[in-house]
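Ticket 4471: requesting a sanity check on a complex prediction with MF3. Repro inputs:
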Amino acid sequence: MSTSFVPATEAPLRRTGEIKLYDIPSAFAGMRAAGQLAAGCLDMLVAETKEGVTTARLDDLARQYVLDHGAMPACVFYRGYRHTICTSLNHVVCHGIPGARVLRDGDVLNIDVTVILDGWHGDTSRMYAVGETPRKAQRLMDITYEAMMRGIAVIKPGATLGDLGYAIQSYAESERCAVVREFCGHGLGRVFHDEPNILHYGKRGQGDTLRPGMMFTVEPMLNLGAAPVKILGDGWTAVTKDKSLSSQYEHSVGVTETGVEIFTTSPAGLHQPHTLTG
Ligand code: MF3
Ligand code: CO
Ligand code: CO
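Returned structure tokens:
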């Protein structure tokens, strides 16, 4: 059972159940610009993510940055969400809502931003460390970044989505970290959350086969404890059931004729802000 493909130029601007194949190089140029803008926003937030700052302040800065660069925040009004970024602290897995919470020494924070530039989506997240963070938290964040990059490294025409999931899961579990199952990566382009689902676990050789022109996110969430998550009463915030630390990194990528292009590389070289002490 495999998903069918459709040229993106012939598809309606919504999720249809088919995988859109985009034109290289024109769509990739648009995604590169959107991706670099989203990554530049995360770069800007590195110096701002420090003790005493509220997550609402980071959201304000991100929104201003995106608007100042001629883009729109994709999450504002998305399914009733009101903010530019998600700020997921410590045992929050994803979709943490910015607010009055003040950053404290020892916090680890995921900041996830999605922008729309000229109709193209750039979606990326990184981990940030506030002050002195515990060694086990640093280790989890190192492993999460490495897991994402190992998943991306297998992407090329002919590889399968199962190969990608396997690369992430086998590495994460070999390091005694658990892969979250309830959230996955997604097709991305003119549509925010499109086909296919990108599972961060899987079996080699299974799932859809990658083709040039596919564009999607890779965004593994890894926990120090058990994998299960629950959603808080606000309807958004996902936390680990066992309250163990969680971590996530996300890139937007495209499948080229020979391999993969990462659209959301950091313009300032701040690929892993969690390694910086701030
Ligand atoms: N950026 C998230 C993702 O990686 C989606 C956030 S949706 C929101 O797919 F509405 F919560 F912002
Ligand atoms: Co995201
Ligand atoms: Co995403």
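Notes from triage: The chain is about 25% helix and 25% strand. Leaving this open until the requester confirms.
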